[in-house]
Each structure stands twice: as structure tokens, then as C-alpha cells.
Write a structure and sequence with these properties.
Largest sheet: 6 strands, parallel
Shape: globular
Bound molecules: zinc ion
Number of strands: 21
Number of helices: 13
Length: 464
């Protein structure tokens, strides 16, 4: 699958840039420390550096192995709680009839940082012209830009969204987001979400002259812009080290610090702006189970990472991937658009079939305990299928030699090479009466079963 950018070890500019402004002296030791850690990973380093990217996401891919997203849809709060559970909690429970939502819809989430005419840090910057071209492309391709809260409502089963959607998110809180990106988004009538780390707002510890101000955020809020949390000080939340205080944290101190980063940030945004914050974007995409738990307990409904992929109805809300857009990686945007483009309708008149009709195995949203699952679907619901046209694609493997039994209409493939990711997307297409039909579904692979233990990927988990 081409959807994701590959590992990167570059320190995130979005953060580093502010250090340069205000805290130059202390980014350097960090850089050194990080570099030395990476150097110990010998052979892989040059390779990783070659892929070196950028943004707040960088680290996520590395982190993806040891700290995988939990693919179990039940893992996170509201989305999985049945509607009746929620209603029951707020007695008296009104009997509301929920619409039948389109569970085959998908959304891609884009993440941006800074908008500048002269790109000097391509890993987090993009020119206004390129940004506008991307916004136009979404429109031209019939990809509907929806608001974050509409997406979450869909995930809760409360409302429908168009079949192919995009969500635009902007990280960190730079003034160019207010001055440059917002007017462009306004022009297209696109809603968007700002992920703010509170100490990066003007006047905060990292809030230098390029930072957005609270007044600007308030104005955006008044205009209906969704404002969400991105921690307090934008550090790797897995590490018991406070870079601001330059202090190694004892376990109790770490817990307290984590509370401030995850809960304090939410409270500050809510109080300062009078809003409800229900989304958390993990700095650098670094997280683990404990961080997710703290976030869940804090009342976050969704956690965003930097691991771009089309988000399905069953995508786990505690690790929603975003495509982070960088000036030097136009392919990320192109891939994202392609992914969502092929997943449903699109220009080439492809009929989408709901996986529920195909008795897929593993089922959509299911978590399996093996990295070598048997993938199977019954195509009877597709009508008469041209046996030669059946194609099965598996994320991480590509087109696989699946077998199709024309008699039973069952297509199956036994995975022989361990799946490495914690989520696996299957795309199945076939021709029926000359028409191309396609379906896709995603299942999870339990952490312990996935092949990552044998993976040569460096393990960046900090020693605690
Ligand atoms: Zn960030």
C-alpha cells in the first residue's frame, strides 16, 4: 500500500522551529541525544535518513511498530458504545431513531502545518499556491470536505456523510494558519480543525512571533472552526523527561506531567475559548496504550496520529491516521486522494458492495490473533462474477494470488507472509455483467501476533 510515507527520524520542524526561536540552547542536546540513540541502530540509520521527513509525524512510523494502534473498534469510548448506552446514561432516555448510516463511506484526514511562500523547511511547510491547488483538487475530484464533528457523528452512527470525504486538520498553531490557510479554506467553504498545543500559542512557552494568538483562535472559533488539542508542550509523551523543565521524571511526576499534557491542555483550551474539546492529536504521532488510556479518561472521543489511511466506519477512534502533507512529498497527497478515489465510486463507475453482504473473513473491524490470516469472501451477492476478473489486494502485500471457486463464489487467500501492520485493508474487485464491482474492508491484527517482533525496524521505545 502506498498510502503512507515511510519512516523518518528527522526531528519535527514544527517543534524545532520554535525551539530555535526561543529555546535554541536546549534543542541541541536533545538532537544530540536523539542522534546518538539512532546511531546505535547502525545499519538502518542511513536507510531511515534517506526517507527522512519531517513534521510532527515523523516519528510515528517508527513508533508504529512498538506502539501500534489498537485496531479493536471497541477500544475507545463513544464510537463504540452503542447509541442506547449513551442514551441510557442521560436519563430520561429519549427514544431517538438513528438514521441508517452509510457504513461504506470513507474519509481521509489531511494534516498541515505552516503556509509560506518561500519554503525553507519542506517537512512542515507548504506554499499557499500548492495548498490551494490541493483544495481545488479535492473539489474537482468530488471529494467532499467535511467537518471533524460530522465525521465523529457518523462514527457514532448519528448521521451520514458523503461516500468519499476529506477532513482538513492544521497542527501546532502558527499565525500563517490564520493569515494564509484560513482565507483559502474560506474561499472553498471548507470546514477544518486546528490542533493546538497550548504552550505554542502566543505568549506561551513556545509562542514566539510566528505563533497564533488566543484572539485569533477566538475569532476562528466564532467562525465555526473546530479547535482541538495537541498537548501542552508538544513533546514525546512516552518519555518520562520534561524538556521544558529539563528534568527526568519519576513515575509519579511523569503521571502528573502526562495529565497536564493531555488533560490540562484540553481544560485550558476549553476554558480559554469556551469550547468542548473532544479530539487529541498526539505530538509526533508517538503514543502507547497508557497515553491512550489517559486520553480516554480525559474524555477525548478520538485520537489522531500521523499514519495516513482511509478511515472506515470501523476505524478505531483511538488511532485515526492522518496524511501529513509536506512540500517535498507531493506524493502523500496524491496517494491519499488515490486511496479514497479507488475505495468507492470514482470516475471509473465502480459499484461498491457492502462487505456485510459478502461474509468476509476476517470481518470488517474484527481483530484477529494471527499475522497469517485466511482472507475469504463470498461473492454471491455480487451477482454473476467473471471468474478471471477477481482481484484481491492486501495492504502490505499488494495483489495476491487468491483462488476463486466459481461454484461456491468464494474467493480466498491464505496469507503466507506475516502481515506487519496492526491494521490490514483488503480490497476486492471483480467484474459482474461487464461492470466493475469493488469492496474493501479493514481488520486488525492483535499486537502480539503481528510480525513486528521479528521486524528489523528500530524500536524507539524509551527506556523508562
Ligand atoms: Zn505538532
Amino acid at each position: 500500500m502506498s498510502k503512507r510515507s515511510r519512516p523518518s527520524v528527522a526531528l519535527a520542524w514544527c517543534f524545532a522551529a520554535r525551539f530555535r526561536k526561543k529555546r535554541l540552547f536546549f534543542m541541541r542536546p536533545e538532537l544530540k541525544a536523539f542522534t546518538s540513540i539512532m546511531l546505535t541502530r547502525s545499519a538502518l540509520l542511513p536507510l531511515l535518513l534517506a526517507f527522512s521527513v519531517s513534521t510532527c509525524k515523523k516519528h510515528e512510523n517508527i513508533a508504529a511498530s512498538p506502539q501500534p494502534p489498537n485496531p479493536t473498534p471497541k477500544a475507545f469510548g463513544v464510537a463504540t458504545a452503542s447509541p442506547s448506552t449513551n442514551a441510557a446514561a442521560n436519563s430520561p432516555a429519549p427514544k431517538t431513531t438513528k438514521p441508517v448510516v452509510d457504513q461504506t463511506a470513507q474519509a481521509i484526514v489531511f494534516g498541515y502545518h505552516r503556509f509560506v511562500t518561500n519554503v525553507r523547511h519542506p517537512d512542515t511547510e507548504i506554499t499557499p499556491a500548492v495548498f490551494e491547488a490541493q483544495m481545488a483538487e479535492l473539489k474537482n475530484r468530488g471529494i467532499t470536505v467535511i467537518g471533524m464533528q460530522d465525521f465523529l457523528a457518523w462514527k457514532r452512527g448519528e448521521k451520514n456523510i458523503p461516500p468519499r470525504c476529506a477532513i482538513i486538520t492544521i497542527d501546532d498553531g502558527w499565525k500563517s494558519q490564520y493569515e494564509v490557510a484560513w482565507p483559502i479554506l474560506k474561499k472553498y467553504g471548507y470546514p477544518f480543525t486546528m490542533f493546538i498545543y497550548t504552550e505554542g500559542v502566543r505568549g506561551g512557552h513556545f509562542g514566539g512571533g510566528e505563533a497564533i494568538t488566543w484572539e485569533q483562535l477566538a475569532e476562528m472559533r466564532d467562525a465555526g472552526i473546530d479547535i482541538e488539542a495537541h498537548s501542552a508542550t508538544h513533546q514525546d509523551l512516552r518519555k518520562p523527561y520534561d524538556k521544558v523543565a529539563r528534568k527526568r521524571l519519576s513515575p509519579p511526576e511523569y503521571e502528573q506531567w502526562l495529565q497536564n499534557e493531555i488533560v490540562g491542555c484540553k481544560q485550558l483550551l476549553e476554558q480559554r475559548l469556551g469550547i468542548k474539546v473532544n479530539c487529541f492529536a498526539v505530538p509526533y504521532g508517538f503514543y502507547n496504550e497508557h497515553i491512550k488510556e489517559v486520553a480516554r479518561n480525559a474524555g477525548y472521543e478520538a485520537i489522531f496520529t500521523v499514519y495516513g489511511q482511509p478511515l472506515t466506519y470501523n476505524a478505531p477512534l483511538n488511532s485515526l491516521g492522518r496524511y501529513m502533507i509536506e512540500a517535498n512529498k507531493p506524493k502523500v497527497f496524491a496517494d491519499a486522494v488515490k486511496m479514497i478515489g479507488t475505495s468507492t465510486g470514482g470516475a471509473a463507475a465502480v459499484a461498491e458492495v457492502a462487505t456485510t453482504n459478502l461474509a468476509t473473513q476476517p470481518a470488517d473491524g474484527e481483530t484477529v490473533r494471527t499475522a497469517l490470516p485466511l482472507i475469504r469472501a463470498n461473492l454471491s451477492a455480487m451477482g454473476p462474477v467473471d471468474p478471471g476478473s477477481v482481484q484481491l489486494r492486501v495492504s502490505g502485500l499488494g495483489l495476491v494470488p487468491a483462488s476463486f471457486d466459481a461454484k461456491t463464489q468464494i474467493v480466498s487467500y491464505q496469507v503466507t507472509q506475516k502481515l506487519r501492520e496492526k491494521t490490514c485493508t483488503v480490497i476486492l474487485s471483480a467484474k459482474s455483467s461487464g461492470k466493475k464491482i469493488e469492496t474493501h474492508w479493514t481488520f486488525g491484527i492483535e499486537e502480539t501476533a503481528a510480525a513486528t517482533s521479528t521486524s528489523p525496524t528500530p524500536t524507539p521505545t524509551p527506556k523508562k
